[in-house]
Amino acid sequence: MKKALIVDDIKENLYLLGTLLKAYGYKTVAANNGAEALGLALKDPPDIIIADILMPVMDGYTLCREWKKEKILKNIPFVFYTATYTHPKDEEFALSLGAEKFIIKPQEPEDFIAVIEKVLAEFRTDEIQIREPSESSEITMLKEYNETLIRKMEERMLKSEDAEKKIRIYAAQLETEIEQRKRVAQALKESEILFRSVVENAAEGFSITDETGKIIVWNNAMEGLTGIPAHEIIGKFAWDLQFIMVQESQRTDELKENFRKITSEFLVTGNSPFAGKLMERQYEKPDGTEVYLNGRVIPIKTDKGFILVSTVHDITNRKKNEEKIKTMNEELELKVLQRTAQLEATNNELESFSYSVSHDLRAPLRSIDGFSQALTEDYFSLFDDRGKDYLNRIWSSSKKMTQLIDAMLNLARVTRAPMNISKVNLSAMAQSILDEIGRNDPERVVEIIIEPNLIQEADATLIKAVLQNYFENAWKFTSHQPVAKIEFGLKVIQEGKAYFIRDNGVGFNMEYSGKLFAPFQRLHDVSEFAGTGIGLATVQRIIHRHNGRVWAGSEVNQGATFYFTFGL
Fold it and tell me: Are residues 27 and 4 in contact, defined by beta-carbon separation less than 8 angstroms?
């Protein structure tokens, strides 16, 4: 193992240099000055000596000069390692005394060791010649030594003067800073007093846990909310508080340890599943009062980890009100279900009754219609004009009644029939219906506009009835126009989209629009426009079964537009 003699009057420097060399496999011997180093070396010569220059008793220069005079030491490499003598002439003088290397502090550890290793390697392989002191006279050497010392003294004086100036400037700055710090300290003290006053008198519960897990703030509101006075909780660990706030029957050592682990990790990392989240819990105070509390824990980063700031509110009244509302809603829901069942039963009875009545009325109407027809065929010539008029009125009325019954039965079927939802091409369906209506009235001139590729999920049979009613009405109420116009398309509205049928017919007064979709309600005289008054009521029921809605807009003699939607 290589042995290095290290010389420095500063213990810290010796320790650091020794630690570095030992880390790289060197054995070290330390000396505090040149004289001590020379004595140690003569007793047990090292492989290399590394010396500072500025030292008491014997400095580094004198040590090097004496070293090179000793027969057993002069072939051992001498290395200067200094932070004080850094002038090129300092190095020149050191080398003239026989030193092999002059290293200026500080050096990176790896770089320093590399230099030492290189010096030793060159000595082992004889690549470097042992440096001999120059042959100058003792007087010349002393002169150079004195010049070096004088230069160093001058440098020290200059540095001292510069340092004194800096000290005076620093002192002035320090005095200013001290005054500023006094003011800041006073402001902080006042701020802390204000903060504590605000916290202590805050309406919400407030607590702070420091980085070690101890509770350091527990305000008046927190005492009231938990029933635990501050003097019993300040200085306790947060997990102890969590533990005592659990029902006594649930307290176990395992639970307490779990609280400790979770909170400790929270304090170190600032991460937790409940960090910043609003949490609710039911809590029984020491006096047995049960309350509901909610709050959140917010981690705040510090130099030592995280502190935990907790805020808590009493939500007992709100929870009680929620329970009342829940009970009332459940009761209301039950009543709604009961009333809905009653209404469904009533509607079913009404529909059955309507269907039965409509069906049963057919027989007497068929009898009236049949006998009216028989009278017309067999005895018509026996009646005078008034009698013939009466007979025609009876026959016409029976036909109208039959149409009304058919419409009522159809309305009942629309309400009761099961739905089969599929994709329906409304454009193609509209074209087919209008083509059929046109074939039955070929003399009419009607401009038809149908927006293509209108696809909708619906019950095809029921939607066909909707379009059939709308288009038959449009065809009927445009009959007085020389050139009628009927349009079917799609319009974007606030809720989504709505289909529309628009015509340029007689229109209607919007004051009476509320009657449009009611059964047997008509806005035009039957003598002018025939009909049963059931068609739009049928349309509305079908659209309602598709979770949609219907409405219309119009002006008298300005046409009308009817809208319907699906599932809005």
Answer: yes
Let me know how long the chain is.
568
Question: pLDDT tens digit string along 60-115?
Answer: 999 999 998 898 998 899 999 998 888 888 888 888 888 989 999 888 999 999 99
| CA nearest neighbour of 13 among 61, 83, 76 | 83
- DSSP class of 537: H
CA dist 525 and 114 (Å) reads 117
Cα distances from 115 to residues 67, 104, 119, 385, 483, in angstroms, run 21, 12, 6, 143, 110
How far is it, in rounded angstroms, from Cα 212 to Cα 227? 25
CB-based burial, 143-153: b 16+ in 10 Å, e otherwise? ebbeebeeebe
Higher pLDDT among residues 132 and 210, named by residue: 210
Amino acid at residue number 522? R
Q: Do residues 68 and 78 lie in contact, with contact meaning Cβ atoms separated by under 8 Å?
A: yes
- Describe the crossing of helices 385-416 and 535-545 by its angle, rounded to 10 degrees: 0
**Alpha-carbon distances of 175 from 56, 165, 167, 554, rounded to whole Å:** 37, 15, 12, 89
Q: Where is 250: in which H helix or E strand?
A: none
Query: For residues 540 and 286, what is the distance between their CA atoms, to the nearest angstrom?
Result: 64
DSSP string, 489-517: EEEEETTEEEEEEEE-S----GGGGGGTT
Cβ neighbors of 224 (< 8 A, separation 6 or more) are: 205
Name the residue with higher pLDDT: 280 or 156.
Answer: 280
Average pLDDT over residues 281-309: 85
Tracing tokens 């050497």 back to the chain, one arrives at 141
Phi/psi at 137 (nearest 5 deg)?
-70, 165
Among all chains, which residue has been given the structure tokens 């309350």? Answer: 291
Q: What is the pLDDT of residue 145?
A: 64
Q: Can you give the pLDDT at residue 527?
A: 47
Q: Which residues neighbour 83 within 8 Å (Cβ) at sequence distance 6 or greater? A: 104, 105, 106
pLDDT tens sequence across 547-565: 899 898 888 788 899 999 9
Contacts 24+ apart (CB under 8 A), 73-76: 73/41, 73/42, 73/45, 74/98, 74/130, 74/132, 75/130, 76/41, 76/45, 76/46, 76/47, 76/48, 76/49
C-beta separation of 399 from 369 below 8 A: yes
Query: How is residue 111 written in tokens?
Result: 């770089």
Cα separation values, 375 from 379, 385, 400, Å: 5, 14, 19
3-state secondary structure of 294: strand
Q: Is the CB of residue 538 less than 8 Å from the CB of residue 470? A: no
As a whole number of angstroms, the distance between CA 97 and CA 71 comes to 15
Q: In DSSP terms, which residues pair with 423 in a beta bridge?
A: 457
> Of 246, 222, 243, nearest to 234 (Cα)?
222
* Contact residues for 269 (Cβ-Cβ < 8 A; gap 6+): 306
**At 45, is the secondary structure helix, strand, or coil?**
coil
Q: Which amino acid is at 213?
A: G
Q: pLDDT of 503-562, one tens digit each?
A: 998 887 777 666 677 665 555 554 455 555 577 888 888 888 888 998 988 887 888 999
HEC assignment per residue over 388-419: HHHHHHHHHHHHHHHHHHHHHHHHHHHHHCCC
Q: Encode 267-301: b = buried (16+ Cβ within 10 Å), e = exposed.
A: beebebeeeeeeeeeebeeeeeeebbbebebebee
